[in-house]
Each structure stands twice: as structure tokens, then as C-alpha cells.
Amino acid sequence: MRSENSDLELCQIENSQSAGKLRRPGMLYVPSRIVWNLRHRGVRYTARVTFLKHLVTLSELFRIKKGKQLQTPHCENAVLNLQPGEVVEVKSFEDILKTLDAKGRHKGLVFTPEMRQHCGKRFRVFKRLELMFDEYHKTQRYLKHTVLLENNFCTGAGLGCDRSCFLYWREAWLRRV
Questions:
Q1: H/E element holding 174?
Q2: Predicted confidence (pLDDT) at residue 124 exceeds the cutoff of 60
Q3: Which of 5, 42, 65, 91 is the most buried (most CB within 10 A)?
Q4: CATH number at residue 88
């Protein structure tokens, strides 16, 4: 079920490519993927897929050069340096919306519609999230000012997903209690 802001994506993991700095160059994965496609799917498929990926990459670069890159609004108290065991309260949905760009993200990390139900509630910090593995792009990414909260999981509502992943919370969306 989508919230009022219809351009919010549903899963944080699927949209993690811009959530943090890349730890391992993604270019290490591309050659092995091309070789696999050549062996298993043929030359025609590989040429089509490779061309489309490069076309998308070039269009993204062109968009960035034009200055149409989305900017995350400046937030007060965006860095709390939360530690495991601290109690925090999730800010109201209206306060969180002020920290999001036009795509419903804060510095690349999406605020999902499922997270809205936790607004105004208190949780204990489970741990800081410094490094994550992006399964879709086969890369590891560094994250800043992001935490995991105890007993705070994605239920996969509307997605048909039963993985129960932790929800990633930016410190800008939380306040210390």
C-alpha cells in the first residue's frame, strides 16, 4: 500500500545504489557478468543488455552534468552519533518529509511507506550501520549516520517478500529521548 507521497519506493535494499560510498569498484563485477551472459545467453542478448546498461549510465552522467541532480534538504540535528542501547523516538511523518528530496530519499536512503507506521514511537538502538552489502549490484557500501532499531523489521507488506530485513534509519529521522 502506497502512502500519500506516491513516488516513494517500496524496498530500501532495491534502491541502495546511491545510499553510500562504494567500497569495492563495481567494475570488477561487470566483466564476469558479460562472460557469463556470452556463455549462457548468447552474443545477441549480451550485446543488447550491455549496450542498454551503458546507455543508461551515459544518460545519468549527462543528467548530473546538467545540474539536475537531486539535493537532500539541509537538516538540523542530522548527526546524533547514536550508540547501541540508546532510546530514540522516530520523528513525526511531517518532520521526516522535510528531510527528504523529491524522490523520498535522504542522501540516497529511501524512506519507505512501511516505515510510516513507526513515526512517533520509541525504540532502542540495536547497532550502528557502517557497512552494507548491496545484493542487487554485488557491492559493499559505506553508510554514515544510519542505525538499526531493535524489533524493527520490514514485513514485506504488498511486496510478497518474507525476508524480514531490518529497516535502515537515518539519524536525521530520529530524536534522542
A1: strand 174-176
A2: yes
A3: 91
A4: 2.30.30
